[in-house]
């Protein structure tokens, strides 16, 4: 099993010592600093950190945008159960004539975009969304092809799947907020797809929309989900995800491997390697010639894994 290596005695100074004296934070800091890391790292191993960076950037730019954005829209319909009404899907609606004027939401975006700083922050947030979706998928693919989803990292993978759902949730709810034609009709399509699910579809779509049609209530709901619900859940999930990574270490291979003495390593093969040649072995530490995510566990000693094993005990790292 992956274990933390012995924590070296660290002299505490400054804020570190000040905090440790009061809230005993030293052990937690030592724990997070001393986790197994691979000897040889591949650029793809950093995709999780890159995604984290974009998430933080999205949080900061999102907070700045929220100071100027107004989640308010007038729509051609509003819900009026007891007035003279039109019945759609069994629900009463009162058509409100002549109300399609530019909404506050749309206008507030125009205000944001009219200043240089505002347009910079909004563009960062807008493009950051696409970057985050692409990076999260790349990070997931790296985890898949590296075999990092296997024992003992199943929980890291599952928390990652939930994070993927959160990322897509951010993208979907954020898309409506500018309240322009594209946003309105794209969301209409998305919600209508949910509406087609048998039995639960229509009640679910009504909850998401805040009524039978996509209206100003939907905008309020999407804003609350985008700004409050999703960030809170995602923050917790990222904390769990990173804690698990910290406990188990990153699974990237560091040249674990070749056994000239015939000893067989128990490995978690990565998918391309397993498909190409299940008996393939790699030279210890050979740059570029190592399988991503190759991992060894069981009774194999650190010394038998790599000549550099005393630098960073590979056996401690799954
Ligand atoms: C907001 C989204 C996410 C963030 C911020 C994030 C962050 C991270 C970070 C910082 C690491 C540590 C090192 C590395 O880069 O591999 C990591 C590892 C990992 N992540 Fe994510 N992740 C996210 C989404 C996902 C998703 C969608 C999956 C898969 C469904 C996933 C699965 C994993 C796995 C299996 C590891 C362990 C990798 C290994 O040990 O080789 N993560 N993640």
Features:
Cytochrome Bc1 Complex, Chain C; 3-stranded antiparallel beta sheet; 318 residues; mainly alpha; 52% helix; 2 domains; 3 strands; binds protoporphyrin IX containing FE; disordered N terminus; single chain; disordered C terminus
Structure, explained:
The protein is mainly alpha-helical and 318 residues long. The chain has 2 domains: 14-38 and 253-317, no CATH class; 43-67 and 114-248, Cytochrome Bc1 Complex, Chain C (Up-down Bundle), CATH 1.20.810. The chain has 10 helices and 3 strands. A 3-stranded antiparallel sheet has the order 1-3-2, with no helix packed on it. Strand 2 and strand 3 (91-95) form a beta hairpin. The chain starts with 13 loop residues before the first helix and ends in a 42-residue tail after the last helix. The model is unreliable at 1-5, 254-260 and 263-318 (pLDDT under 50). Residues 45-49, 51-52, 55, 136, 139-140, 143, 146, 148-149, 153, 156-157, 160-161, 163-164, 167, 238, 241-242, 245, 250-252, 293 line the site of protoporphyrin IX containing FE.
């Amino acid at each position: 099993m992956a274990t933390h290596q012995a924590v070296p005695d660290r002299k505490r100074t400054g804020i570190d010592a000040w905090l440790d004296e009061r809230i005993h934070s030293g052990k937690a800091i030592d724990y997070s600093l001393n986790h197994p890391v691979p000897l040889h790292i591949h650029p793809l191993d950093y995709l999780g950190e890159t995604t984290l960076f974009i998430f933080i950037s999205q949080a900061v730019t999102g907070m700045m945008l929220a100071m100027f954005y107004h989640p308010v829209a007038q729509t051609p319909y509003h819900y009026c159960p007891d007035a003279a009404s039109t019945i759609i899907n069994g629900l009463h609606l009162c058509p409100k004539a002549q109300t399609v004027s530019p909404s506050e939401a749309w206008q507030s975006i125009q205000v944001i975009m009219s200043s240089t700083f505002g347009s910079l922050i909004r563009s960062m947030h807008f493009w950051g969304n696409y970057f985050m979706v692409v990076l999260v998928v790349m990070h997931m693919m790296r985890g898949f092809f590296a075999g990092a989803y296997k024992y003992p990292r199943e929980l890291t993978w599952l928390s990652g799947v939930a994070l993927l759902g959160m990322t897509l949730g951010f993208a979907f709810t954020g898309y409506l907020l500018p309240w322009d034609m594209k946003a309105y009709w794209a969301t209409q399509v998305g919600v209508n797809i949910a509406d087609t699910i048998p039995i639960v579809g229509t009640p679910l779509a009504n909850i998401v929309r805040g009524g039978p049609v996509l209206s100003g209530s939907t905008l309020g709901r999407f804003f609350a989900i985008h700004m409050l619900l999703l960030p809170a859940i995602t923050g917790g999930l990222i904390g769990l995800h990173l804690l698990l990574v910290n406990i188990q270490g990153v699974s990237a291979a560091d040249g674990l491997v070749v056994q000239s003495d015939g000893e067989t390593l128990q490995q978690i093969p990565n998918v391309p390697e397993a498909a190409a040649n299940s008996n393939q072995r790699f030279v210890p530490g050979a740059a570029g010639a190592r399988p991503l995510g190759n991992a060894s566990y069981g009774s194999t000693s650190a010394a038998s894994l790599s000549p550099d094993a005393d630098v960073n005990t590979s056996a401690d790292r799954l």
